[in-house]
## 1
Amino acid sequence: MKNASRISLTALTLALASTWLTACEQAPPAAPFKSVTDMRQFMEWVLDPVADELWASVGIIIDEKGETRIEPKTDAEWAQVRNNAAIIAEAANLLMLDSRAKDREGWMIAARGLIDQAERAIKAAEAKDADALFTANSDVFLACTECHKTYAFSTPAEAADAK
């Protein structure tokens, strides 16, 4: 009886090992993601419009009439700024999808940097702090520009103009 137990235990061990090895050899299932835009469309249709709104949400205009501060005034305006910053942060996550990532190093660092700066803009909007939002928006702009210098501009002259 002892030998029968050893044989069935050995058979079970071999069967489990075989199943495990077969499972390891199979390709992982395809990601459930489906991009519907190419990179240019993603930038123009998704990121650029909300970034433009975010950047236009605070500022100072100085002209012959004096100084005019631009900043959200109502709860709804502050919420829209927060929402735009959140869209930018989440869109930066989409930039890290394998189908969009240009590489696994600099691209990922740049996308993560955009997320970090957009999070600062979210916090500034939630605090209704126009000065902090101005600084965060500037840093979002710089994160975009630095990435574009490496990945978006076709010529060195375009990259130099972005400085």
## 2
Amino acid sequence: MRKIALFLSMLGIAVAIQADTIVPISSPFTGVYSEGFETQPDGVFVASLGVFGDGSTVESLGGPNLLVTVGWDFLSDTDPHSGDQFMGGAHVNYRYIFAQPAYRFGGYFNTNTDVAGATVNFYDVSDNLMASLTASAPTNGQWAWNGWETRGAAIARIEVIANNSFGGFIMQDDMTYSPIPEPTSLLLLGTGLGALGLVAWRRKK
């Protein structure tokens, strides 16, 4: 009975570790869908944009102040990470809403304010906050890669919240994401860990 109780406890811990866990990806990757803002109309402030070509959107969390541009001069000057255009928000933060729940998400960030960095909030399909993680967003025209993947629930949307006092001015370029391949894939991963634990327990027995 003690061995069974121990196994069930270990299985519970394994599943708990898998649930609602977002982990950083340090190396750039190319997901199923990509968005470089190259085909977006530039120089027009809007409340939302269709992105990734699959029905996903990026939406302002304030007024209609999202801007796709070829360059942005505020406290410093920002040029595209690649190509001719990139996207940012003037005094507004924003959120991505995925047409298909995401497994991975990433891209390049910077800010043309005097305070680096942003917070990225991850939400599941039930609108539960999964994690709040720090994103690198350098100043002075420098770009930094940020990427994440879920080890639990699928990601339905994310919010990008600037650290600076101006609100917004977090620039993004060369964004990418991959949807969950199938609805139960990550659940199977969690149960797979439990199965491995069961095999190990049986062998020890």
## 3
Amino acid sequence: MTAQLVARRLVGTRQWRQWLLVTVEIVIALNAVGGALYGLAGAEDVPRKWLEGTPFDSYLVPSLILLVAVGGGMGAAAAAHLVNHRLAPEISVAAGSTLMGWIVVQVLLIGPNGGVSWLQPAMLVAGGLVAALGWQLRVARAASGAPAHGGARGGS
């Protein structure tokens, strides 16, 4: 295989990975925003018992963290890919890592109080997927010899 053919295949692979990544990031961002808004509205059906032993006496601060760190991070990552920003893969790695950290801390803090949901392992896996795809895009960009900037669009 010639280097040019390898580069073309990597670019094609990079494109489908990027669209998969953006889709997952948007879904996670919307989920985080929805969860945060629910928490900010009082999280009516979520037991207060889950907060026992945590630094929080209400769902206000955790909801704001979810909104800004997870929802905002995933939204920023998706937007960075959509405008072809040079740091898009790195932003995805950071957003995925943030989500995984959020879930680990959440389970450590509220898990002993019975706060367990199927969504926690699902989001842990989704965060890992986002981080892994972001990393793969970064590696594919470097392997293809593509510049680390977005070219004519979003190169700032």
